[in-house]
Design brief:
The chain is 81% helix and 0% strand. By secondary structure, it is mostly helical. It has one domain: Four Helix Bundle (Hemerythrin (Met), subunit A) (Up-down Bundle), CATH 1.20.120. Helix 4 runs antiparallel to helix 5. The model has no long low-confidence stretch (mean pLDDT 85).
Length: 204
């Protein structure tokens, strides 16, 4: 299939999340007024785009192997890029980031091996629940500086304590997301081990 045929609207929305991650991460390190709010807004737009690309692909009959694979990859790139930035900002423990990173590399590697055998393994409901939980946690982390900085500038009240509590909620949700990530990763390995580690024969 030609690249132009693959690059339909759902796939374009999917791929747009990759450069958007760089913009969001860059804004996370900016201190100028509105930077935190813009980072949070773009993150919400990316999260909504994750739902929109799937909806458009299904409603327009544009579901493809390329779209399934890149949707999962774009989710991982978005999550891991922001997680690494949060580690640098001392918001997330390094151990949680490493567990998440190892899980994503392992699952992605298995998915790529399956693809070489002619099988595209899309994320199941447990994997999607893991991603949603992680995105919610990241939303809390990105919302905290928005409230603390831009909320203070706009409304003139000190929201430092409130923002700190929002950060704590984000960490709790991310820990839950990490546990769910490990559990769903184990399920993925168990379900696809025969396909990935079996004989090198393409699926019929």
């Amino acid at each position: 299939m030609l690249l132009s045929e693959k690059m339909n609207l759902p796939n374009a929305i999917t791929l747009s999340r990759i450069p958007l991650m760089f913009v969001i991460v860059g804004l996370m390190f900016c201190a100028w007024p509105g930077a935190a709010t813009l980072a949070f807004t773009l993150f919400i737009a990316a999260a909504l785009g994750d739902w929109l690309d799937g909806y458009l692909a299904r409603s327009r009959g544009l579901v493809s192997s390329f779209g399934k694979l890149m949707d999962a990859m774009a989710d991982k790139i978005m999550v891991m890029g922001i997680v690494i930035a949060l580690v640098d900002l001392h918001k997330i423990w390094v151990s949680l980031a490493l567990i998440t990173l190892c899980r994503e590399f392992l699952v992605t590697g298995m998915r790529m091996v399956a693809a070489t055998k002619g099988v595209v393994v899309s994320a199941d409901s447990h994997g999607k629940s893991k991603t949603v939980t992680q995105l919610i946690a990241l939303g809390f982390f990105l919302g905290a500086p928005m409230v603390a900085r831009d909320g203070t500038r706009l409304f003139g009240w000190d929201a430092t304590l409130f923002a700190g509590n929002v950060d704590k909620v984000g960490l709790i949700v991310f820990v839950a997301g990490t546990a769910l990530s490990v559990w769903s990763g184990c399920r993925y390995i168990a379900r696809n081990s025969r396909l990935v580690f079996g004989d090198d024969v393409k699926a019929p």
